[in-house]
Amino acid sequence: MDDQTTTLSELRKVVARFVEERDWSRFHDPKNLSMALGIEVGELMEHFQWLRSDQLAEVLESPEAMAEVREEVADIAWYLLSLANALGIDLASAMEAKMAKNRAKYPPESYRGRFRLDGPGGSGPAC
User: Quick check: is 123 in a domain?
Assistant: First the structure.
């Protein structure tokens, strides 16, 4: 499997099959899945905690560290897909709708090269 040939639908089925084979759906309600997702995001963040931007290469150039980061990213994707399955959310259409909203909220002519409309220290990040 790779990103170029695997569809989102196929990944969702892999996750659903894994859950079904273990009879875990009774544990995989939206509350538990959203909490698990948050925990996994925290575990990913631990790999970068306390690093300055100029120290990121230490992680990116370490095969061991990147293997751990890849696993955390996979865990995040797994829980996100499982949550989408549990809630019946079509991720592609949800992304399309959210991106349309973001395009209207953050027009490129106003935000190109910046994340705040009024510059650093202003009203907050654009996302």
Answer: no
